[in-house]
Every structure is written in structure tokens, then in C-alpha cells.
Amino acid sequence: MFNLESALQKNADKRPGMPLVMGVLNVTPDSFSDGGQFENINTIEKRVVQMLSEGVDIIDVGGESTRPGADEVSVDIELQRVIPVIELIKQKFDIPVSIDTYKPEVMRQAVQAGADIVNDVNALQEPGAIELVAETKVYACLMHKQGSPKNMQKAPSYQNVVKDVAEFLLGRVKACLEAGIEQNKLILDPGFGFGKTLEHNTALFADLSELVETNYPVLVGVSRKRMIAEILDEAPVEQRVFGSVAAATLAGLKGAKIVRVHDVGSTVESLRVTSYLL
Questions:
Q1: How would residue 41 be classed by pLDDT, with cut points 50, 70 and 90?
Q2: Distance between CA 227 and CA 208 in Å, rounded?
């Protein structure tokens, strides 16, 4: 059974002080970075093997795109996409799996298939989600977002983005604890790019300590996102690798315990060298 503290301790032997690397595996036709690349089961298995060879610590399986402007998909379609993949990974490989979903029924079946973590962009706000996690005793990553993927980037606004995000996430922590979820099973994600401008993202990154100091593990996901493109003069997705690796490494230096990335090998190498030279 997956244990985050044990995984972090094991990781400390390879790259002390650096975060776990969560590799993105989108089995969707429309994800912003790798949509349509991993829909065939043989291609998916090859990608898992590649990530394992590169040093991935967790594989995050997603069956519905949450990119800005994305349409929702039905529960049935999402299940058809993710359950065979989770079953394949758990049967053939020894690696923790995260399910990237906000739908309680997808969570339930994913956990039954072997998922160790529920990675929820909606912070367990869907009816039944919080009870499902409490019942199954899996880990849960609570993410902040403003609006829905369909409209979240139209006009994001905050009084103070750092305080607003921290207050929301700690409010969700309180609800989780009251529902019976164990404190050591919660992970916080500020939700870079989810209803946030570059200015908002930059402020959150600068004050990442606001979440780190809550003593809940923090997950940072900025890989290939729009904020990287904006910093790099509108670089297309395929040219955001170096910027993404730099951001993931900086997140580790700022105390993040998990970084969610598309480019596993490059990120692992950067974290190892950074850890060695510190």
C-alpha cells in the first residue's frame, strides 16, 4: 500500500530534499500537451515503461481534459478511458497510481482498480466525493481553481490570490477532517493556471511557503502550462520543456513535496543535480 512519507524517505536516498516526480499520463484526445498520444493500450504501456526508466515516482492517469475551454465528458466515457489503464499499470508494474478526476464514481472504480491517490481539481466538492475518500482511506490531493475549465480563464479575480487560495484549501482540509479523512492523507495543490493570470501564478509561486508552512505536502503542477509560454514569449507547447523543468526544480527548492510533470526524465535529472550540488 502506498505511503507518502515512506516514498519521500526513499526518495531522499536518491535526491535529498527534492520532491517526488508525478508523471502525467493523459488518456484523452484533447489534453493541451499530449492529447491523443496515449489512447492505444500498447502505446500507453510503452509510455509507462519509459517513465519508469526515467525515474518516475507516481503516475497520474487522467481521462478528461481540464485545459482552459475544455468540454466535460460523461462518467461512462471517462471510466472507459482510465480503468483499463489503471488495471494494466497495477498488474504489470510496481508504481503508485493517481487518478485525476473530480467524479465520485470514477474515483470509486479507480480505487477499486488499484489507484492510490485521488487527484481532484475540484477539491472533493462534488456530492459523495469526500465520503468516498474517507471510506476508501486513499490519499487525496485538493486543488484550488476558480470557475470551471470552460470559463476559468475569462476574467479571474482575487482580493489577494495567495491568501484566497490558502484559505480555500485550508477550508477544504477542515471539511475533509470533519468527514473522517486522516490528516496525513491530504495533499494541497494551489492550482497554477486554473482561473489565474500570469500575475496570480507568479504571486502564488513567490509565496509558495504560505502553503508549505501549513505542514501539508504541497503538489505543484506547472508543466508546459500557459504561464510558461507567457514567460517565454509565447513559446508553443513543445518548446516549454526547459522552462517547465526550471519551474519544477524551483518548486522543489521552495518545499514542494510532489511535482506533476510531462517531461519525467529531464525533471528527474535536474532534481538530482540540484540536490547533489546544494
A1: confident
A2: 16
Residue 34's pLDDT band (cuts 50, 70, 90): very low
Please count the other Cβ atoms lying within 10 Å of the Cβ belonging to residue 189: 26
Report helix, strand or coil for 258.
strand
The one-letter amino acid code at 47 reads: R
Residue recorded with cell 505542514: 215
C-alpha cell belonging to residue 260:
506533476
Tens of pLDDT, residues 144-173: 998 777 666 777 889 999 999 999 999 999
Which CATH code for domain 4-277?
3.20.20.20
Enter the DSSP assignment of 80: H
The residues near 138 (Cβ < 8 Å, ≥ 6 apart) are: 111, 115, 116, 117, 118, 185
Catalytic residues: 225, 260
Confirm if 211 and 141 have CB atoms less than 8 A apart.
no
Q: Among candidates 122, 37, 125, 130, which has minimal Cα distance to 72?
A: 122
Per-domain residue ranges for the chain? 4-277
Are 219 and 169 a contacting pair, CB within 8 Å?
A: no
At residue 250, what is the residue type?
A: L
Q: Which residues contact 275 (CB under 8 A, 6 or more apart)?
A: 15, 16, 17, 18
